[in-house]
Amino acid sequence: MTGSITSQPAPKGSEQPAERPAAQLSPTTPPQEAVLPPRAPEAPAPGTLVGSHYDHCFGCGPQHPAGLRMTVVAGEGLDVTAEFTVGAGHQGGPGLAHGGLLTTAMDETLGSLNWLLHAAAVTGRLETDFVRPVPVDSVLHIRARITGVHGRKIYSAAEGRIGGPDGPVAIRAQALFIQVKLEHFTQHGRPEDIKKALDDPDLFKRARAFEVNP
Ligand SMILES: CCCCCCCCCCCCCCCC(=O)SCCNC(=O)CCNC(=O)[C@H](O)C(C)(C)COP(=O)(O)OP(=O)(O)OC[C@H]1O[C@@H](n2cnc3c(N)ncnc32)[C@H](O)[C@@H]1OP(=O)(O)O
């Protein structure tokens, strides 16, 4: 049996106000005062891999057993490119990518941009528009760029295309990342994972660098 959603009259007192408030900018749109800073001296050279920030990250960790294992390449400016191959294990509808996983791929790519500023930052807000379905076996070609920085807030945007790097857009995303100090991880993360992470000499080097230059 198929059902349909019937419209009910709104309860008394819940009517829309006669005048709508003026359209507001999305919190992922940089304010006028935002700037585009230069790449950090430590930023990966254009054309080179940005590198995983944590071996067990679901998005980029090479040791994650079921993660997306994404690799991201630094662009010439405050931009990166990445590819995500949609496998059979990534399905939502039959033969189609799950939207949440596509969002994860966008989040991971957008998060990689912060390395170009040598900033440790976490996603505060992520908005996605799913423009067309993405079939299993497609490669999602993602291009992402920083659109502005204001204080601790890093604004960015990305598109994911299918059928080639210049193919039609399948997904768009805008994000607001917030710079955090090392304590964000050490205070909130599961202690055994924090200990393991701090024991990793490479990660520790990066984390220390953030601590002295947050
Ligand atoms: C030992 C191990 C070392 C590891 C070294 C590795 C380092 C590199 C790891 C990178 C990892 C990336 C991984 C992939 C990307 C994720 O998946 S990150 C995981 C998902 N995100 C999270 O878990 C974040 C959870 N949220 C939080 O912890 C806190 O809300 C935040 C985001 C840190 C902000 O809290 P806060 O520091 O107290 O700052 P707060 O004053 O609330 O906000 C600052 C500003 O941002 C604005 N803001 C904050 N949230 C929002 C929002 N949702 N919407 C709009 N505006 C907002 C505020 O309004 C405020 O604006 P102003 O007043 O300054 O104008």
Automatic annotation (TrEMBL):
Q: List UniProt keywords, sorted A-Z.
A: Apoptosis, Cell membrane, Cell projection, Cytoplasm, Fatty acid metabolism, Hydrolase, Lipid metabolism, Membrane, Transit peptide
Task: Indicate the segments forming the Thioesterase domain, all copies.
Answer: 95-160
Q: Which residues form a coiled coil?
A: none
Instruction: Spell out the subcellular localization from the entry.
Output: Cell projection, Ruffle membrane; Cytoplasm; Membrane
Where is region (Disordered) located?
A: 1-48
Q: Which residues form the signal peptide?
A: none
Q: Name one Pfam family in it.
A: 4HBT
The reaction(s) this protein catalyses: tetradecanoyl-CoA + H2O = tetradecanoate + CoA + H(+); decanoyl-CoA + H2O = decanoate + CoA + H(+); dodecanoyl-CoA + H2O = dodecanoate + CoA + H(+); hexadecanoyl-CoA + H2O = hexadecanoate + CoA + H(+)
Q: What is its main location?
A: membrane
Question: How does the UniProt record describe the way this protein sits in the membrane?
Answer: Peripheral membrane protein
Task: Tell me which Gene Ontology terms the entry assigns under biological process.
Answer: fatty acid metabolic process
Similarity comment: Belongs to the THEM4/THEM5 thioesterase family.
Tell me what this protein is called.
Acyl-coenzyme A thioesterase THEM4
